[in-house]
Amino acid sequence: MTSPQPAPGAGAAEPTGDRPVSVVLAGGGTGGHIEPMLALADALTRRDGAPGGTPRVTCLGTARGMETRLVPARGYDLRLIPPVPLPRKPTPDLLRVPGRVRRSVAETRALLTELDADVVVGFGGYVALPAYLAAWRAGVPVVVHEQNALPGLANRIGARVAARVAVTVPATPLRGGEHVGMPLRTSISGLDRAARRAEARAEFGLDADRPTLLVFGGSQGAASLNRAAVAAADPLTAAGVQVLHARGPKNTDVTVPPRPAGAAPYVVVDYLERMDLAYAAADLALCRSGAVTVAELSAVGLPAAFVPLPIGNGEQRLNALPVVEAGGGLLVADADLSPSWIEAQLVPLLTDPQQLAGLARHAAAAGSRDADERLADLVLQVAGQGVGSR
Fold it and tell me: 3-class DSSP state for residue 165?
């Protein structure tokens, strides 16, 4: 397949330097698309020394995505376009995709014209595809950012029309990919775990000096992690390991009996509003390996036992592999995770400070704390405005 070319005479107006660069971000749907989009938006709005002033950021989304809540809460303008869900398998719904694409592309192109867009940045998913196609038709340059080790369909298409392609995981099989890393919010990328440890443990009712395991399965929890960790509560706490466990807001049946007097605490919460403090409190995490999770843990130097989601295309395993191969964590299949595995593998690790410290060093070495700034540089270069001042 050859890359499509813009129609003759098409093209966005060159930025003149007398107005702020107009950046349109397409990353709605899931948190895995929205969080890096917002981290980039923050990095761009910190560029108050850019020619023409602080870049103007507009986010694209759909009425059904998490962006309707998250984007306005962060203070950014959100414009809605019709979603274009792409069936993973051939179904009758596939026949309706071309019509949906045409409608969404037309509306998105009109928005790009209204916004006088200088560059479109996409993060994949059903918002990004119409944005890529609309930008190509309007002659607006495109930047693609891929979070996962295995790119989705939207970004595979977007890479064919993109001026630059940024990837989170090295060797991601995406045309023209440049390793940039995952843009992260500064509360994570700037976290000093050691300096915040005492505060963080006090916040969650944990002891100040015990080794600490953090268990979480994403915003909704994970049944297999919940079962295994709760069933391993006795050997963990008997060994002096305390646990901070986010079970998910709907999993109220996940409970642990009170620990005996003097034993290590096992704290169960529905949801972690302050992931920065959770990371600061912990010495090791037991978690899934979504792209944002892996990037955050390695950025802050927190080693993990990664349990990839057992469904999908295997991308979660590939997300974790670079950190694991660098010596910054463990990898266990969901089917192999059990209370006995936790007792045999994690208890000895959590009670060995030297081994934990080594894992933490290797995790940090595999991470990236400045991907937001690096991606902002790239985007502004494509927009023709230079990099401004940090």
Answer: strand
Using the Cα atoms of residue 354, residue 333, residue 254 and residue 344 in order, give the sign of their dihedral. Answer: negative
**Topology of 187-366 in CATH?**
Rossmann fold (3.40.50)
b/e map 105-142, b = 16+ CB within 10 Å: bbebbebbeebbbbbbbbbbbbbbbbbbbbbbbbebbb
| Cα dihedral value 345, 350, 351, 353, nearest 10 | 120
Q: Which pLDDT score is estimated for 3?
A: 42
The DSSP letter of residue 249 is: T
- Measured CA to CA, the distance from residue 37 to residue 30 in angstroms comes to 11
User: Can you give the pLDDT at residue 88?
Assistant: 56
Can you give the residue ranges of every domain in the chain?
A: 22-184+370-383, 187-366
Low-confidence ranges of the chain (pLDDT < 50): 1-13, 94, 386-390
For the residues of 287-353, what is the DSSP string, one character each?
E---HHHHHHHHHHT--EEE---SSSSSHHHHHHHHHHHTTSEEE--GGG--HHHIIIIIHHHHT-H
d(CA 309, CA 303): 18
Q: What is the pLDDT of residues 226-237, one digit of tens each?
A: 999 999 999 999
Distances 140 to 107, 124, 132 between C-alpha atoms, Å: 15, 17, 9
What's the pLDDT score for residue 219? Answer: 67
Check if 22-184+370-383 and 187-366 are the same fold.
yes
Radius of gyration of the chain (CA): 22
Beta sheet of 164-167, edge-to-edge order: 77-80, 56-61, 22-26, 119-122, 142-146, 164-167, 177-179
Q: Which of 199, 256, 214, 197 is nearest to 232 (CA)?
A: 256
Tell whether domain 22-184+370-383 is in CATH 3.30.540.10.
Answer: no
**Model confidence pLDDT, tens digit, residues 37-94:** 999 999 999 998 777 889 999 999 999 888 999 999 999 999 999 877 665 555 555 4
Which class for 194: exposed (0-12), middle (13-18), buried (19 or more C-beta within 10 A)?
exposed
